[in-house]
Structures are given as C-alpha cells and as structure tokens.
Specification:
heterodimer; A: mainly alpha; two-stranded antiparallel ribbon; globular; disordered N terminus; B: alpha+beta; 5-stranded antiparallel β-sheet; 21 strands; 37% strand; elongated
C-alpha cells in the first residue's frame, strides 16, 4: 500500500541553503550515511532488477556463472507468452475498475463527512478507517467467507430469503468480485486525502458564488469541483498506483477465478509449481509495470505541484458551511451503512464467529486458538511481525528525516537525485521491490536472504512517507531557528539534537506510526521473500487459509483485529486533532 | 574590533549568477555602533551573515577582535558556532519548544567546557533582568508578544557576553509605537553593555537615531559612510540623498560659479538660486538642485525672491502637514503647519535655504 502525505505547504519565507562547513564530522557521517542508505534501499534493488531482465538464461540469477547478456527474456515474455493478450488487459480492467469503485465511494463519503450535516460524522469517520489498518489479506479472507458462492454467509442468507438454489447468487470469484473488493479496500486512504483537500478549500470561494446568485448545485459544479480538481486528481493517480501493486486480492480472490494480473503473474513466475524460478522472465514482466508506475508518478508529481498552487488554504478559525441534506439524509445514511457493513462490520463478525465456530454449526469453542497457540510457527511470526514493522519504520523515519533535512538545507551536487529517489519509492509496486531485493541479496555475498533482516531492508524502501512528512514540517521551521543555534555556539549535533529533532518530533512520531502500520499490514514482500525463519502473521494466515485451516486462519485474523482496533482510535485522535474538529 | 576587507559574494541563480557583494570594506572600533543601511537586496544582510559565519564569502577577509574568522584567499572559514558573537534575527528565531529560560540558557548549555548549572542560572537571570524579562523565565516561548520575543532574543544574544553583537533588522517586525519604544530600550541596553554592534536595517530613522557610523549600501557596495549627520547633510550622490529622508530634486542650469557660490537658474520658473559649491561647473551645465522638505518655507502670498508653485494637495499628518507642490512639471514636497489651509490649484511661494541645498551634475 502506498501512503502519501498532505502536500499543501504553507507560505513560507524562501529557504536559505547553507554550505557544508557547519556540519562537522558527526554531521557529515550522518548525512552521507543517510544518502548511501537511500541509494541502497531504493536504487540498488532496481538496478539489480534491470540487470536481471537482460541476463539469461532465465532460470539463473543475473551474475551466476553461466549467465550472459541477452534479450531472450524480453523477447520471450513479450512475444511468446500471454502477457500482452491476457495479463495486461486483465490488469488494466482490474486497476481501472477498482479505481472507479474506490473513487466514487471515497468521494461521496468524504463529501458527506466534510461538507454536509450528516449525523454521527465522527463515529463514521472512525469506522471508515478500519480497512486502512486491517491487512488486505485479512479483508480478502473475510470477504471470501462472506461472499463465496456456496458457503458465503451473504449468499446463504440471500438464498434463504429469495428461495434460490446453490450456488450464488453472488460469486466473489470473478472479475466483478475482485474489482469490488479491491475498490472497497482502497476507499479509506483516498477518503482521507479527498477529505483533506475539501477541508483546505477556502469557503469564501463558494460563498462568493452563492452571493453572486448561484444555487447550491451550480456552485458545486462550477466552483467546488473545478477548485478541487488538482486535489482530487492526485489521490486518483495514487489510487491507481495502489491498485497496480495489489497482490492480496488478486491472490486470494482472483487466483481461484483464474484471473491473472501483473502482481500474481510475477509471483507465479518466481514460484512455479514444478519448475525453477524464472528470474529473467519475471524481471522482464516487471519492467513494463515499473515503467507504467513511473509514468503515473510523473503525472502525480505534476499534479501535486499544481494542487499546491491551486488550492487556497486560509488560516485557522474558519468553518466551511455544511450543506443541509434534508430528505437525502436517509439515502446518504444508507450508502454509508452499506459501505461500513461490507468494509468493517460484517468482516469483523464473520472472522470472530468463524474463529470460534470453525465454520461449522457444532457450537462454539476455543479449539482454533488452542491449535494456533500450539503451532510452533505462531509465536515467532508474532515476534517477526512486530520486529520487522518496528525496525523498518524506525529506519525509514530516521533516514527520511535526514534526507529531507539535507535536501532542504544543504547545497550539494546530487541533491536532486536523492530527492527523486526518495520520491520514486511512492510508486514502486511492492511486488517489484520484493523481487528486486530478492535478486540483489541472492547475488550479494551477504547472508541476509531468508532472515528477517532482508524483510527489514525490503520494507525500508518506502522512504517517501518519511521524507514527505519531515519536509512538510521542516519547511515550516524557519531556517533562522537553526541559525540561531549556530550563532549561539551550538555545533551540528547540538543543533539537530536540541532544536531540529524536538521541533520535528510530532511529524517523526506520525511517520513512525504510519510506517509501523504499513509494515504491520505488509503481505506482498514477506510472501516473496519468505522462508521458514521469517514468516510474519499475514503470511501465516494465508498459509492456514490455503491449507483449509479456516478456523485457525480466522483466529489469526481476529488477533490482528484485536491489535489494530486500539490503533484506530489513536489514529483518529491524531487525524481529528489535525483537522481541528472536536 | 571588527574588520571587513574586500568582501565579495556571488550566488548561483537559475539564470546565471548574482553578485550580492562587490567588495565591502569597513571597520568597527571597540564599542562602536555601526549600521548598514539600504533597501532590500542591497547586500546588507548578506554582509551580516558573512560576519556571523552563516555564509561563506567568495573573496575578502573578516576578523573579529584580531582573530581572522574568514579569509577566502587562504580558504579559512571559522564556523558560526566558533565565533564569539550574539545574533538577533529579524524573526527573533525564538525556539517554540523551549521556555524563555531554556532559550536564553542555550548558548551557555552548548558551551564547551561546560558551564556549571548554578552559573548558567545566575547569568540567564541577569540577562533576563537586563532586558526586563526577569519575571518571565518560565513562560512558554509561544506565549510571548512580539516585543517580549524581541527582548528574549536580545537576552539570548547577550548572555554569553559576546565580543560582537549582530542585529539583523531586529525592529522591523514590530508595530510603529512599539518599534520606537524598543529603539530606545535597545540603545540604552547597548550603551550599558558597551558591546560592539553591527546593525542592519532599511529604516533610515533607526539608522540615523542609533548609530555612531552609518554606511549606506546599494547593489552590493557601500556607497557612503560617516556619522549620521554627515551622511544626511552631505549625501555623496542622488541615491544616498533620496534614500535618506525625502528629498526634492529640481533640474537647473549653471549660470556662473564664483567665490564658491554657483548661480543656478531653475527650470520651470524664473528663479535663480545661489548655492555653495566646492565643485566648479562650466557655464550652462545641467545640474540637480537637491533640498529636503524641511529646508524650504511655504507661503500662500508672494514675497520677493520666492519661487512660485501650484499646490497639488495638502496631506494632514497630525503635528504637521505635507504640502505637495508642482514647479512646472517637477513635483516638490514641503512641510507646513497643519493650520495652513491651501486648496489644490492654489498658488504657493516657497523659499529654499540655499546654504542647505546640494548641487550635483545632472546625468
């Protein structure tokens, strides 16, 4: 999942750049270290991937003895496989379809919550965050329990109400099902971004329209939408990137329906049933989608720059007027209710119920939990999940903050490159990162492959989250606050330790929390890099589910929910305090 | 105390480069108050930042108290934190995450070898009392008014008793009344601590009121320096004259120069004026006659030897009124008593104190 940060930066004085003279040895080491780390975490895997695509034969690692430069992989993949005829159209339909679903739902929800007098807004806001925190693989599993054509709860219920025969009437294992599930899963973060854009819009723009005699609908169409356009298009692109990298839903919902999209295709190239992994072919497939992601990124970058110029942010203390829903109140609530039922309430109930009942009607028991706790894989997976999420969040936060500081405050050749590298990480599909890190570390003579450390490294490529957040708050820290420290006799470490870090504190904490959640949810990377020693909870759940240990899989899902629920409230407090609502 | 020699600084910009400093030379004696005055972009702040060590000059040298702190030729640059300075920023740069005491204590806390906590406490409280903020030590920095932040910034700059105090437009963020009050407090504070001060401002009244020496800067150079009276009374050229206070310019022609007096026929009227001039002008040379509004008297009735003008507007400003006039097409400003009730279009007659006029060759 890609996370992005509200880009609207306040108007600030021109930032003065300083020479390196102030840094001293400790500062120099920290700065250079961060730059090298950024290149190693983001660039090195991609270069390894590029090399792999043009080294053959395909089942060899790029620099194994016997490998040589070749175009065979590219020719093979693009001319002799169903990549262009099947995988590409499937991916396109999946991505576009789910983005449409996401966008329609998220825009409606954001508008209802930010701009209308919908009741219970805070509660609804909280509930919408639910799928943001629950790992996608858990959501996918819960939805199969609900909508599977034979035993899915909703289907059983519908059949008994409507008097139909098995199976059906809903078949989740179809392109439509896949699109709806993915669309629903992406709603929360697009909702957050759109909500932010709507919140920062200057209400005077709309008031001016009303004062000019325009009816509410006219104002909405002729003022609200055009003003919001850049702030709306940027999340749209981001949602496309997220859909492109999705792996959980295509694996759990798409695979049984024989729908192959790019991410699953890459995964099966690397984990074939009875052949050797085809590294070269997988890399050739990855290149196409990496290129697509880069194009989207360029568009996205262009849009957020425009959005910064476009959307007018006024100071604090204003409250946009809310539209009165009137007789639309009931349909609006029904829409919200439908989304929450499918996205939060029913998945929770079905997971908890299944974990206790084993999916049968033999009565309730703790059997699934007992078996789970006795499973020797369980506790290491719990430890791995928290360790990898925590360590990678820490690394990214630290490296990202140092990168942001040097990009903003120092002048040196290559600054632009670092900026691009850290920004790029928003758009690189996780499945490509996992694969690239795998190739790199199978090639490098460092014994990290198969340990949790390779997961820590691979997770840590998401530098953009931290650099963006740190940059946004660094921009608000007037450079004179740092210069005052130098002029008071403070060295670089004094300045960073006593002035910069304390001022950055809240955004560093936000960055850490956000990345911890991302790491906790991560499924794609640990799937690709999995070994017996580095299983995490999401992978364990998938394995149990694939082995038809449904009750135990549901038990893992329930435990994940138990952990995630308090985080939702922490996150809600943070988000709501930022938007200044009570 | 502070010696600056041949300072140059060039910035790379999107379209080439911009030479911010084109060779700055000046000296401040021990205990002196030296002001760099100029419009924004003239290089005054860049000069101060070079002295502070926040910018590295491309050429020239700087020494503070006999120690060379920057010498571009030898590639020497002492970082800011090793220079013995106190610096007050335009934005004050009070750290919002610390209280008043912690802000002021910072320079002592980062000092090596360490300063004992007891001594820090004593010196911080001294500094806070010096600026009249003794009761605010535990106040959060974010809960201070502009004037209070200003005082805390001074206390922080003075707490380690620096050799040199650098002030970068410290009053420009205050409202008019507070600015005046702080100006007096600041003057008083500096004369009490006898610290050598380099002051940067674009406000001429601050510069004239506070400094021992004023240096007027324009596009990267010091155009003129001297005591405030000298610079105001004898500006070296039109730029200085028009920047320091308001000035009237009347184009004219020299009729003759004799006995140190130049007879000038003013354009747009039939008047001739005799102005003291050390320079000799050839007959018929075009010149600019420059005088300040307060150096002319304005009447509404004709008297011999006065110059006839047309009133454009009288702007009431409280204690006095500004009279905007036209001599031919040349706009002029004079000062009149607020009781003078001239109407636009009225005729008015002005007398210029010739001995206070300046004469420059017109370009």
């Amino acid at each position: 999942m890609a996370i992005q940060v509200d880009e609207a930066a306040p108007v600030v004085p021109a930032v003065r750049r300083k020479r390196r003279g102030q840094l001293g040895l400790a500062g120099g080491i920290a700065i250079v270290g961060a730059a090298i780390a950024a290149l190693y975490l983001v660039m090195a895997p991609l270069l390894a991937l590029l090399a792999t695509a043009f080294r053959g034969p395909s089942d060899l690692l790029p620099f194994e003895p016997g490998a040589h430069w070749t175009f065979d992989n590219v020719v093979d993949v693009y001319l002799h496989t169903p990549l262009l005829s099947t995988v590409l159209p499937n991916t396109a339909i999946f991505v576009l379809g789910s983005v449409v679903v996401t966008f329609f739902t998220a825009f409606t929800l954001a508008w209802l919550i930010e701009r209308t007098d919908l009741p219970w807004r805070t509660t609804i806001f909280t509930a919408i965050l639910f799928p943001l925190l629950v790992p996608g693989v858990v959501m996918a599993f819960a939805w199969t329990l609900l909508f599977a054509p034979n035993a899915g709860w909703v289907n059983v219920a519908l059949r008994s109400v409507l008097g139909l025969d098995s199976p059906g009437p809903i078949n989740i294992f179809s392109m439509g099902g896949l699109i709806l599930c993915q669309g629903a899963a992406s709603v929360p973060f697009v909702f957050l971004l759109l909500g932010a854009a709507m919140r920062t819009m200057n209400p005077a723009l709309e008031e001016a329209s009303s004062a000019s005699g325009a009816k509410p609908l006219t104002t909405f169409l002729r003022v609200t939408l055009p003003v919001l356009r850049p702030g709306v298009l940027a999340p749209l692109i981001l949602a496309t990137l997220v859909a492109l990298e999705q792996f959980e839903m295509p694996l759990i919902i798409g695979f049984p329906a024989r729908i192959n999209v790019f991410s699953t295709r890459l995964y099966f190239d690397l984990n074939p049933e009875d052949e050797l992994p085809a590294y070269g072919k997988a890399a050739a497939v990855a290149l196409l989608f990496l290129a697509a992601a880069v194009v989207l990124l360029i568009v996205y970058n262009h849009l957020i720059r425009r959005a910064e110029r476009f959307v007018t942010v006024t100071g604090k203390g204003y409250r946009p007027t809310r539209y009165a829903l009137g007789r639309w109140r009931a349909p609006a609530l029904a829409f919200v209710g439908l989304y929450l039922a499918a996205g939060a309430i029913l998945p929770t109930i079905v997971l908890v119920w299944t974990s206790f009942s084993g999916g049968s009607s033999d009565g309730m028991s703790f059997d699934a939990y007992r078996m789970l706790l006795a499973d020797r894989r369980f506790w290491p997976a719990v430890a791995n999940t928290f360790a990898v999420a925590g360590l990678s969040a820490g690394i990214i936060t630290l490296v990202g903050a140092l990168l942001a500081w040097q990009i903003l405050r120092l002048r040196f050749p290559g600054r632009r490159l670092l900026d691009v590298v850290s920004f790029m990480s928003i758009g690189i599909p996780a499945v490509i990162t996992g694969f690239a890190v795998m190739v790199l570390h199978l090639t490098l003579p460092i014994g990290l492959y198969g340990t949790i450390w390779i997961l820590v490294l691979a997770y840590s490529y998401r530098l953009a989250v931290s650099t963006r957040l740190s940059r946004a708050s660094l921009i608000q820290i007037h450079p004179e606050l740092e210069e005052a420290s130098f002029a008071s006799g403070g060295r670089w470490l004094d300045t960073v330790g006593r002035v910069v870090l304390p001022l950055l504190g809240p955004s560093l904490l936000a960055s850490f929390l956000l990345l911890f959640i991302v790491g906790f949810r991560e499924f794609t990377i640990p799937m690709i890099l999995q070994s017996e020693d580095n299983w995490v909870l999401s992978v364990i759940m998938w394995k149990l589910q694939a082995d038809r240990q449904t009750a135990q899989a549901a038990a893992v899902g329930t435990l994940i929910l138990v952990f995630v629920t308090p985080v939702i409230f922490v996150l809600r407090r943070y988000l709501l305090s930022r938007q200044g609502e009570t | 105390m502070l010696t600056v020699r041949g300072l140059t600084k060039t910035y790379a910009t999107a379209d080439g480069s911009f030479q911010a400093l084109k060779g700055i030379d000046f000296e401040i004696p021990q205990g002196g108050f030296y002001t760099l005055l100029g419009e924004s972009g003239c290089g005054k702040s860049t000069t101060l930042r070079c002295v502070a060590g926040l910018e590295e000059p491309d050429g020239g040298s700087i020494s503070i108290g006999g120690h060379v702190v920057a010498d571009a030729e030898r590639g020497a640059q002492v970082p800011a934190f090793e220079r013995d300075i106190g610096l007050v920023f335009q934005s004050y740069a009070i750290w919002p995450h610390m209280d008043v005491f912690a802000n002021v204590a910072y320079p002592l806390r980062v000092q090596r070898p360490r300063v004992a906590a007891v001594e820090i406490k004593a010196r911080v409280m001294d500094a806070l009392r010096l600026v009249g903020m003794g009761d605010f030590a535990n106040r959060q920095a974010t809960k201070l008014s502009g004037g209070q932040q200003q005082r805390v910034a001074f206390a922080r700059a003075l707490v380690r008793r620096p050799k040199l105090l650098l002030l970068d437009e410290p009053l420009s963020n205050l409202d008019a009344k507070l600015r005046e009050q702080m100006r007096f407090e600041l003057q008083e504070l500096i004369s009490r601590t006898r610290v050598t001060t380099l002051y940067v401002t674009h406000d001429q009244s601050e510069a004239l009121a506070m400094s021992d020496t004023v240096a007027v800067m324009a596009s990267g150079r010091i155009v003129q320096s001297g005591s405030p009276r000298e610079v105001y009374g004898r500006p070296a050229n039109r730029t200085v004259a028009s920047f320091l206070g308001s000035a009237n310019f009347i184009r004219g022609k020299v009729i003759e120069t004799r006995d140190g007096l130049a007879a000038v026929a003013l354009d747009g009227g039939a008047s001739t004026i005799h102005i003291p001039s050390r320079a000799t002008f050839s007959q018929g040379a075009p010149v600019d006659v420059i005088f300040r509004p307060e150096d002319a008297t304005t009447r509404l009735d004709p008297v011999d030897g006065t110059i006839e003008c047309i009133v454009d507007r009288v702007v009431f400003q409280g204690g006095m009124s500004e009279c905007q006039l036209r001599l031919g097409s040349t706009p002029l400003r004079t000062v009149v008593h607020p009781s003078v009730g001239a109407q636009p279009g009225d005729r008015a007659w002005i007398t210029i104190q010739a001995e206070r006029c300046l004469l420059f060759a017109a370009n």
